[in-house]
Amino acid sequence: MSRLAFHLSTLTLPLYAVAGLRLRARTHRFPPAEGRVFGHALAAEADGDGGPRLRLLVLGDSSAAAVGIARQEDGLAPCIAAQLARRRGCRVDWRTAGFNSATTGMLRDHVVHNLEPAPYSHILISAGFNDVKNFHSGRRFRREFGGLVYALKARFPESRIYWSQVLAPDDVPALTPLVRTILRPRAAEIGRLGQCLCRERGVTAIPAAKGLPRRAFCADGIHPSEDGFAGWAEHVAEHMDAG
User: I need a labelling partner for 226 at 20 to 30 A (CA). Which of 23, 70, 96, 237 fits?
Assistant: First the structure.
C-alpha cells in the first residue's frame, strides 16, 4: 500500500509545488552555525593523548551543518561525540561535513571524494529528507543512496556506518497539513528503501525519533534547536554504543 501511495503522490506534484513555494516564502532561511567543523570531546577520566580514541564523521544536509542554531559546538557531531566520550570513557575526535539542501546524490558526487582520508571509526549519514521533499523517485534514491554507501565504504573501509532515518513529516512543525499529507507516503517509501539498502550493504539504520516537542526545533520549525540536537545525539549514541 505504501508503494502505491508513493507512486500516486507523484500526481500531486503541481499542487505540492505551489504549497511548497508558499511555505518557503514565509520560512526564515538560516545560515549554517558559526565555528569550526572539527574538534574533540573528552571524558573526564580519559587520557587525552595516549588513551583510546574514536573518530566520528557526520555527513549530511543542513542538519549536519547545524543550520538553525548559533554555534557549531551545539550541533549534531559534537553532541554525539560528547555522548560517546561519556559512554566509552575516551576521547572522540569529530568532523562534520554538512551542506544546505544536500541530497544523497550530491553527497556521493561532490563531498565524499573531497574528504580527507582520516581513519574514522564511526560515520553517520544524516540525509534523505531533501530527497523526499524534492520528489526523487524510488529508483533515483536507490541509486544515489546506494552509491553514497559504496563510496563511503570504499574511502573509509574500516568505519562503521550509520544512517539516521528521515523524520516523519507529521513531526515537522512548519509543514502545513497539505504538505504533510503529500510527503507522508514519500517519506515512508524512502525510509523503506533506505532500510533495505542498509541491510544489504552493512549499514546500521537508526530509527527516527517520534513525537518531538516544539522546543526540539528552532524558530523555522524545520531544523533542530540546541535541545533538538542534544536529544537527537543521545538517541544516535545509544545505537552507536550498542554496536
Answer: 23
Question: Residue 46 — very low, low, confident or very high, per pLDDT cuts 50/70/90?
Answer: low
CA geometry: angle 109, 114, 117, nearest 5 deg:
125
Cell matching residue 6: 508513493
Decide if 39 contacts 87 (C-beta within 8 A).
no
Contact present, 211 and 223 (Cβ < 8 Å): no
* Residue 165 near residue 145 (C-beta atoms within 8 A): no
Please give the C-alpha separations between residue 167 and each of 46, 137, 154, 181, 206, in angstroms, as whole numbers. Answer: 34, 18, 28, 14, 11
* Separation between Cα atoms, residue 178 and residue 69, nearest integer Å: 27
Question: What are the φ/ψ torsions at residue 207 (nearest 5 degrees)?
Answer: -65, 145
- To the question of pTM greater than 0.85 for the whole model, the response is yes
